[in-house]
Amino acid sequence: MAGKEVSVLLLLAVLGCGSGGKVLVWPADNSHWLNMEHILQELVVRGHEERELPIWEGAYKIAQKILQMKNITKMICDGVVKNETLMERLRASTFDVLLADPLSPSGELVAEKLGIPFVYTFRFSMGNTVERLCGTLPAPPSYVPTTLTSLTDRMTFWQRLKNILSYTLQDFIFHYVLWASWDQYYSEVLGRPTTLCETMGKAEIWLIRTYWDFEFPRPFLPNFEFVGGLQCQPAKPLPKEMEEFVQSSGEHGIIVFTLGSMVYNLSDEKSTVIAKALSQLPQKVLWRYKGKKPETLGSNTRIYDWIPQNDLLGHPLTKAFITHGGTNGLYEAIYHGIPMVGIPMFADQHDNIAHMVAKGAAVQVDFNTMKTQDLVDALNTVIYNSTYKENALKLSKIQHDQPVKPLDRAVFWIEFVMRHKGAKHLRPAAHHLTWYQYHSLDVLAFLFICTATIVFILFKCCLCCCRRCGRIAKRKKE
Length: 478
Ligand SMILES: *[C@@H]1O[C@H](CO)[C@@H](O)[C@H](O)[C@H]1NC(C)=O
Ligand SMILES: *[C@@H]1O[C@H](CO)[C@@H](O)[C@H](O)[C@H]1NC(C)=O
Ligand SMILES: *[C@@H]1O[C@H](CO)[C@@H](O)[C@H](O)[C@H]1NC(C)=O
Ligand SMILES: *[C@@H]1O[C@H](CO)[C@@H](O)[C@H](O)[C@H]1NC(C)=O
Hints:
It is an enzyme of class 2 (transferase). This is UDP-glucuronosyltransferase. GO terms for molecular function: glucuronosyltransferase activity. The protein is of the alpha/beta class. The chain has 3 domains: 3-230 and 406-432, Rossmann fold; 240-400, Glycogen Phosphorylase B (Rossmann fold), CATH 3.40.50; 438-477. It has helices at 2-12, 30-47, 53-68, 72-81, 84-92, 107-114, 129-134, 157-178, 180-190, 196-200, 240-247, 268-279, 309-313, 327-336, 349-358, 372-384, 386-400, 406-420, 435-438, 441-477, and strands at 15-17, 21-25, 97-100, 118-122, 205-208, 224-226, 254-258, 284-288, 301-304, 318-323, 340-342, 362-364. The strands form 2 sheets. Strands 1-2-3-4-5-6 form a 6-stranded mixed β-sheet, with helices on both faces. The protein has a 6-stranded parallel β-sheet with strand order 9-8-7-10-11-12, sandwiched between helices. Helix 16 packs across helix 17 (386-400). Residues 1-19, 48-53 and 55-60 have low confidence and may be disordered. One 2-acetamido-2-deoxy-beta-D-glucopyranose binds next to loops. The site of one 2-acetamido-2-deoxy-beta-D-glucopyranose (NAG) has 2 residues, from loops.
């Protein structure tokens, strides 16, 4: 049953591109798909095959449905790689490249099985494990913070200790818990001993969905492209009724508020606290919220099921953005230079907000302990202390002032891989080294042994000399 849906999905995902090039897409979940969709649309535009576009929405819905099921990745995988008819059909379609997100494994397995190059697009993996261990991306733990720690690039001794321990812990979890069963599966399917990590490491290009406006400066490899903000676009006009509400705010301006599509309902207590805080502000507030209308909702606040977030953030009257810290929303705020109040809840959101706080463009509020006054204070700070707006504008300029736009870079590298059947010239030789060779531990051990031997011999010689001298002196005395 799953196999059938999958084959539908994959066959829909056949996309004409450029000069007869074909892209095969491995489905990713929710917000990850959003970014891939932008790249795909651009690829379609360049290949003049717009008629394929509506198909994408269908494919997306099916992908979502499938991904909601448990154990699903393996089932998808089985449904594809173990279905010879389907594999034969895919092979006959001669794809030039496969696009995948390493967070939904199996894309790379299908690519390997079909013998086509693949490109990854993603934000990060837990502990950056996939990038570091499989992609050999260097991450010195002294100044590259790992994920889920909310650390920044400036760490005290104890924070660096925490960073190293959490890298180690996350590596351990990946190696022994998450990857173990996949290694066997991959070896079985490919018919040779291999591991999930080794297969992932074969990605030609890694498109990372952050950029230096968001990321802390860090070392990277030539096959890593940082394309954060590729989905950002100038604001379009608002719907008439919304524009009237926005204009009614006058000189005070508006606040845009969303906790993301994952949070439909807040507890009554929380929504009351939030609504009360918002009601005390002179600004008008547009709140994306699907739950029950709080009793304390002020006349300056309007609740919407959905808001055109990018268009609102790009509106000249927008003063602040209250966000849960999803990467897509943050990038829209960076693009338009809007200071933020972050209320992170789960996953990478704490890290994302920590980045924005460190760059001076956001204030963080703790969701669990938040009082009315905390939210009011945070909003007043980002709106009336001009440093936050200035820092947000600085990030915006970094995002806008690039030699080549992120979307164009992403598309360029995908097309490069299609034209040249890979990008092997960018692949570091680190992939051929063992972990102790990579860290030069064998060389260090050798040098250590040499040094120790020399020191030992010198020591013995000295001892010998001393004894002999001692004996001669003794004889002379006698
Ligand atoms: C997932 O798959 C494994 C092996 O196919 C099976 O043993 C396990 O019960 C499945 N788990 C769930 C939650 O379906
Ligand atoms: C294998 O793929 C073909 C072609 O997509 C499909 O018609 C068939 O139902 C699949 N078989 C299984 C067992 O899923
Ligand atoms: C939201 O809360 C209402 C009542 O409090 C409940 O009926 C509804 O199912 C909840 N919706 C979601 C998506 O949790
Ligand atoms: C504005 O915020 C910055 C950074 O937090 C702080 O150093 C500065 O003192 C604040 N200015 C005022 C006037 O509060």
